[in-house]
């Protein structure tokens, strides 16, 4: 896939690539305390796969993150976010993204899909910033913005950021 602003790259070979949870990273950035304080952290990918089709537009991605892996560096906040006030990890242990289509234009590449968090599914657009292929390995960087209210996570309006910027660094092997 060619990514805007870079030299033409070769497409990954068709096939199924398993996402490497250890080599992959999901980071988030948001704001707290009426938007005054930055909050950054991570989630852990538990499993996932990228299926590269002969026709790139028919390719797909499915990935699951461990909701209990929410980590922001503040144990009290992390425990609260894992509670029923926010992620309710006891009832909803995974956050899942499934792509529905791959779009490419001269300006960008993106995955339109559906994310399920706290039992609620909503459309999410993931912008693909770069893709690199080496042998039977794909490395991709992407971003998305998630509105937590869309998933019914509305506790502490104003005190807790509404939107999270998600940055993905995914490594998958065939």
Draw up the topology in text.
Layout: E1 15-19, E2 25-32, E3 37-52, E4 60-71, H1 75-82, E5 94-104, E6 109-117, E7 120-134, E8 137-147, E9 163-173
The gist of it:
The protein is mainly beta and 174 residues long.
Structure, described:
The chain is mostly beta strands and 174 residues long. The chain is built from one helix and nine strands, in the order ββββαβββββ. Strands 1, 2, 3, 4, 5, 6, 7, 8 and 9 form a nine-stranded antiparallel sheet that branches. The chain is elongated. The protein starts with 14 loop residues before the first strand and ends with a strand.
Keywords summarizing the entry:
174 residues, disordered N terminus
Number of strands: 9
Helix content range: under 10%
Give me the secondary-structure category. Answer: mainly beta
Order of helices and strands: EEEEHEEEEE
The 3D shape can be described as: elongated
Q: Output the number of helix runs.
A: 1
Distance between the termini: 17 Å
**Low-confidence runs:** 1-8
Round the Cα radius of gyration to an integer and report it: 17 Å
- Largest pleated sheet: 9 strands, antiparallel
Strand content: over 45%
> What's the overall average pLDDT, rounded?
91
């Amino acid at each position: 896939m060619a990514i805007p602003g870079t030299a033409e790259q070769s497409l990954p070979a068709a096939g199924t690539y398993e996402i490497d949870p250890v080599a992959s990273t999901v980071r988030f950035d948001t704001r707290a305390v009426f938007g005054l304080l930055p909050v950054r952290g991570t989630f852990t990918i538990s499993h996932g796969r990228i299926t590269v089709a002969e026709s790139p537009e028919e390719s797909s991605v499915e990935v699951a993150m461990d909701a209990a892996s929410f980590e922001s560096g503040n144990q009290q906040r992390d425990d609260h976010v894992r509670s029923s006030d926010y992620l309710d990890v006891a009832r909803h242990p995974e956050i899942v993204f499934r792509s529905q289509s791959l779009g490419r234009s001269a300006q960008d590449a993106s995955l339109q899909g559906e994310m399920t968090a706290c039992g609620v599914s909503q459309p999410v657009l993931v912008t693909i910033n770069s893709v690199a292929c080496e042998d039977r390995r794909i490395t991709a960087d992407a971003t998305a913005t998630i509105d937590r209210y869309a998933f019914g996570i509305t506790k502490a309006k104003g005190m807790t950021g509404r939107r999270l910027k998600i940055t993905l660094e995914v490594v998958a092997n065939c």
